[in-house]
Write a structure and sequence with these properties.
alpha+beta; five-stranded mixed β-sheet; 33% helix
Length: 735
């Protein structure tokens, strides 16, 4: 059974080693270990991609001078769901395309350095189809995969399969394949061959499969042509073709169609432009076969199923129909690469008539592009490092679990390698650190600094949001666009609405600055991922710093707000915030009780506007008390009857559910047992706080220079607060 928190890679390595030590063959050991893993996860309901992922197992160092070997459970015989339908590969008909097939890194066959090794053996067991091979002794990719796997990194594999012969299972039809009962509609690949396998940091999303497959065989077929053929046959059935017609009958029917006089089975559903274009294009292709055998295997398609999916998504973003995209793919031919077809889609969209805008048909007329491989890698790497720090993520990015075991040096190596920097596969940790510095200074496209900027931001934000902020309930929060003083605004005359007679004139209400102001202040620190942390793989030390600064930012806000409340700053009229002339200061100290609350509430409701003519009737909403009064205050406010001696049961409590208690220990430290009332911020001004551009959390940005201390991230918090008016606040002094 897998151990708690043991990854699939670690489990397979351990289990295969144990089984081979007992005398099992390499093939049987992989099959038994994979079966044990799948069974354990089936019992817990954690199926995920366990049955379809291609997990890589590395054997130990080979005896003598032989190369080190690896094994991959490439396919388990399960049903595969793709954009072009569902299919299953018959394990009995699956084999290598030749005696030896390449094993690459990231499907990259352009560079010699990207060759991992050679697949030289395959075997079908009860666990599925396994491939086995030997690492190259000379390529950097081979060395990198071995080093990272020894560190515990759970590599996956992507399998390239070519379909040679298939059968179709109709709707409701049933067949037994690979020991399982399958129900149609379903394509059965009765004969297929593996022509290439690649080792990857992480495979496809868990919602699909960790094996990349393409159909290329009978009838010069590939995935995009399969989809077009299905759509074409459905269209021909609408035009009168029998639903059970053979391919040859369908071709004959298509060749004899006169599109100008064609009669539909359903006249109320005429052909649209896309369907007409498909029929014309198909007739043209049929006429141009030149006697070529339509059943002969064609050249291998360079576009994978994922490429075709992405091309259709890009075409939709450009305002092209699926038919137009399929036609562009077909016109490009089976040897076209992704970049060439994608460029053709942009050219086709740009050539639209002037009255049809580029990108027409997209949401809000805008272009949208799905996440690139680099975006997916960066998101997975960020979540992986957060999980290494101990953060619980509800939905980690696809691939995060696989990258979780990667060290800081391993992540840097992978990031630099993906950015196109040569030679990093052979570098040690100190060399990698220096290369990161050069890449950063040269503004290279390495993702490593941005990954840890995002890690810093998320750790900082998590701690910031988790820290208490008792002041937020009773303070008005605003937004500032710069660091200039922000002034309070009040009506300078009686704020009453006046009678407007018929055909009369509306009088202007005059506003003016109240005289009270404050401005934002910028606070900040620099967090470094140092050379020592990098070499020692000390992620914990780095990740603790943004947590501490996040909590510190919350404390800074609270300190500034309660300093104003307890300090009683001097207002624009030359008097303290709480002053008898302001009508907001009790004449004597008292604990919160019926009498003190009665006097405080009455005083606030009697406050007048700036002209002294109009009663504002401000209603207390919050009672702000030191911690020493917290329990007594809650008893007063949450009792249905007044909790006083000599009061009969059932005596109404006029303060129940009328005030919201707020307690903060800063009041105990700054003003002893003084306590306060505040009105609702929407009813009247009291204390106002503001953030720059309304961003209510610290910001994180890269330092411009890769400093001698390491990769620096500036943490900046732009925050300010000030008293805007005294009328919505009331104070009862300490005894």
């Amino acid at each position: 059974m897998p151990r708690p928190h043991e990854s699939k890679q670690d489990f397979l390595r351990r289990k295969v080693r144990e089984l081979m030590a007992r005398g099992e063959s390499e093939e049987q050991a992989l099959a038994l270990a994979s079966r044990a893993w799948n069974q354990a996860h089936l019992e817990t309901g954690e199926t995920g991609c366990a049955h379809l992922s291609a997990a890589v197992h590395l054997a130990g160092e080979a005896p003598g001078d032989g190369p080190r070997r690896f094994s991959i459970l490439a396919y388990t015989g399960k049903r595969v769901r793709t954009w072009f339908g569902e299919f299953v590969i018959d394990l009995a008909g699956l084999a290598l395309s030749r005696d030896k097939v390449p094993c690459l890194y990231h499907h990259n066959a352009q560079e010699r350095d990207e060759i991992v090794g050679v697949i030289d053996k395959a075997d079908t067991t009860g666990a599925g189809f396994g491939v086995f091979g030997a690492f190259s002794a000379v390529t950097p990719a081979s060395r990198q995969v071995q080093d990272l796997a020894d560190e515990g990194f759970p590599f996956q594999a992507s399998l390239g399969v070519r379909m040679l012969r298939q059968e179709e299972l109709g709707p409701g039809e049933e067949a037994r394949i690979n020991g399982r009962s399958e129900v149609g509609p379903l394509s059965i690949w009765r004969q297929a061959e593996v022509f290439e396998t690649s080792i990857l940091p992480f495979g496809a999303d868990n919602e699909t499969a960790a094996i990349a497959m393409s159909a290329d065989g009978t009838g010069n077929r590939n995935p995009q042509e399969d989809e077009m053929n299905k759509r074409l046959k459905a269209l021909l059935v609408r035009l009168g073709l029998s639903a059970d017609a053979s391919d040859e009958q369908a071709k004959a029917f298509l060749a004899g169609l006169d599109l100008d006089t064609v009669q539909l089975k359903e006249p109320d559903k005429p052909l649209d432009d896309e369907e007409t274009a498909l029929l014309k294009d198909s007739q043209g292709q049929l006429a141009g076969t030149g006697g070529q055998d339509p059943g002969a295997p064609g050249p291998q398609a360079l576009l994978s199923a994922g490429d075709v999916d992405l091309l259709h998504a890009n075409g939709e973003g450009l305002g092209l129909s699926r038919g137009e995209v399929s036609q562009a793919i077909a016109q490009a031919g089976p040897q076209a690469d992704f970049k060439a077809v994608n460029q053709a889609l942009f050219q086709q969209a740009a050539s639209r008539p002037a009255h049809q805008p580029f990108g027409a048909g997209t949401r809000l007329g805008q272009l949208e592009q799905g996440p690139s491989h680099a975006d997916k890698f960066r998101a997975a790497a960020v979540d992986a490092q957060l999980m290494r720090c101990g953060m619980a993520l509800e939905r980690p990015a696809p691939g995060a679990e696989e990258l979780r075991g990667l060290s800081l040096a391993g992540l840097a190596r992978e990031s630099l390698h993906q950015a196109g920097i040569k030679g990093v596969l052979r570098m040690g940790r100190d060399q990698l650190w220096r290369e990161l510095g050069r890449a950063t200074l040269a503004q290279h496209s390495s993702d490593f600094p941005s990954i840890f900027r995002d890690v810093t931001h998320k750790r900082l934000l998590g701690a910031y949001l988790a820290a208490p902020a008792t002041w937020r309930a009773w303070v008005n929060v605003s937004s500032a666009t710069d660091f200039r003083p922000m002034h309070g605004v009040q009506l300078s005359a009686a704020p009453k609405l006046e009678l407007v007679r018929e055909n009369g004139e509306y009088k202007e209400g005059v506003f003016s600055d109240s005289g009270e102001s404050y401005r934002l202040l910028s606070h900040g620190k620099v967090v470094y991922l140092s050379r020592e942390m990098f070499i020692n793989d000390d992620l914990r030390a780095f990740s603790r710093m943004p947590v501490l600064f996040g909590a510190a930012a919350r404390r800074l806000e609270a300190d500034m707000v309660y300093d104003l409340l307890c300090g009683g700053p001097v207002m624009n009229d030359g008097k303290a915030l709480f002053h008898s002339d302001h009508g907001n200061l009790a004449s004597a100290a008292a604990a919160p009780d019926k009498d003190s609350l009665k006097a405080a509430r009455a005083a606030m409701r009697k406050q007048r506007d700036i002209s002294g003519q109009e009663i504002l009737d401000l209603t207390p909403r919050f009672i702000i008390v030191p911690v020493d009064y917290e329990t007594e205050t809650e008893i007063i406010l949450r009792s249905s009857t007044l909790p006083e001696d000599n009061k009969p049961a059932g005596t109404h409590n006029p303060f129940a559910a009328k005030l919201t208690p707020v307690s903060d220990p800063r009041l105990d430290a700054k003003s002893g047992l003084a306590w306060y009332l505040a009105c609702d911020p929407t009813q009247g001004d009291t204390i106002e706080a503001a953030y720059l551009d309304g961003v209510e959390q610290p910001r994180v940005r890269d330092q411009d220079v890769f400093g001698r201390n390491g990769i620096g991230y500036e943490i900046t918090h732009d925050f300010g607060c000030g008293v805007m008016d005294f009328r919505g606040l009331y104070k009862v002094p300490a005894e």
